[in-house]
Amino acid sequence: MRALLLGITLLAAAPALAAEKYVGSNVDVRTVLAFKVADAAVQKFLPDGWQPDVATSGPAKDVNLRVTFIDRIVNQDAAGKALEPVRIAHLSIPGKMKGSQKGGTMLFRIYSSSAGGVPGPYGVSVHAPANMERKVRIDPAGIGTVEESWEFKSQDGDSIQLQIQYARGASTPDKAETKFYSAAKPEFYRIYRSEQSTDVVRSPAADRVQKVLFKAFGPTLSPLFDGSEQLIGVTSDPWYTRRTFLRTS
Fold this sequence. Notes:
Number of domains: 1
Strand content: over 45%
CATH architecture: Beta Barrel
Radius of gyration: 20 Å
CATH class: Mainly Beta
Distance between the termini: 33 Å
Shape: globular
Oligomer: single chain
Strand order of the largest sheet: 1-3-4-5-10-11-14
CATH topology: Acetoacetate decarboxylase-like
């Protein structure tokens, strides 16, 4: 009896587990470009109290900006209702709060082909009609070549263009849990639990990119892509599936 009372007391004293709300799920095909751009330019897109959190070693060394191209094939809300497929290009910074290890991926601009997705939960989405094409060729020897073409043009004058061709390699399955924060309201974040197949097409250790042309300009983009940027890495996710949650307590 005494042990039972002690157990009840300990449970009552323990902090409550954080509650989460399921938001929805999606299945994508993704291409991620990893850049090193001017530190001062990146800092301007982070909210007060945040700073870049840049790796000093490994494949992400020196990367302080990512541009992710997303072909959202399946899109569902929390009730399982199908939402419209959408094409997205989003820009993010690996960041953390100054003097703290708290951080994650900071989203500061999202270009969405869906006008209904504006300004979006992060408050940083703009409508940008998209043109996108993807081709996959497999030769008799089984060697795969992928060609992609993307173009987004927003109503406020920003433009992103990507043309890339690369040799397909072996994909590595992976699972991840990540937090994405909003640069417009940094107290807000979403939790993503994902599974994906990852093909690292370009890294400091290897490069299977056969050709690449990337252009980004406009009021938001020109300060970041002024000609001094370096494309450090390219990652292909032939399939990417995730579940999205909000922290409610």
